Amino acid sequence: MLVDQEVMLRRLHELRSEHRDLDTVIDRLVQHPLNQLQLQRLKKRKLVLKDEINFIENRLIPDDIA
User: Fold this and answer.
1) Cα–Cα distance for residue pair 2/19, rounded to 1 Å
2) Which pLDDT score is estimated for 15?
3) What Gene3D superfamilies is this protein classified in (predicted)?
4) What are the residues whose beta carbons fall under 8 Å from the beta carbon of 66, sequence distance 6 or more?
5) Better-scored residue on pLDDT, 44 or 63
6) CA 60 to CA 12: how far, in whole Å?
7) Does the CA dihedral 58-61-62-64 come out positive or negative?
8) Are the C-beta atoms of 12 and 56 separated by less than 8 Å?
9) In the chain, what is the straight-line distance between the N-terminal and C-terminal CA atoms, in Å?
10) Whole-angstrom Cα distance, residue 53 to residue 16?
11) CA-based nearest residue to 26, from 14, 13, 35
12) Three-state SS across the chain?
């Protein structure tokens, strides 16, 4: 169980890092919108990353209804 949690935490860190990096790239492309298709793909990737981040966070910290 501990190994699985460590793997998920490592993956979570990687996803968050990529998500932040995409923020930077998207901000730059928005300022100079030469390639709209590339911008759309990056935004879509960012949404996929956000979904993966939420999934892992929910597995690591489940909601407890009191």
Assistant:
1) 25
2) 96
3) 6.10.280.50
4) none
5) 44
6) 10
7) negative
8) yes
9) 24
10) 7
11) 35
12) CHHHHHHHHHHHHHHHHHHHHHHHHHHHHHHCCCCHHHHHHHHHHHHHHHHHHHHHHHHHCCCCCC
The predicted-structure confidence for 29-60, as pLDDT tens digits, reads as follows 888 767 888 889 999 999 999 999 999 999 88
Question: CA distances (Å), 7 to each of 17, 20, 40, 48, in order?
Answer: 15, 20, 30, 19
Q: How much is the pLDDT for 34?
A: 74
CA dist 19 and 53 (Å) reads 9
Greatest distance between any 2 Cα atoms in the chain? 51
Q: How far apart are CA 53 and CA 32, in angstroms?
A: 29
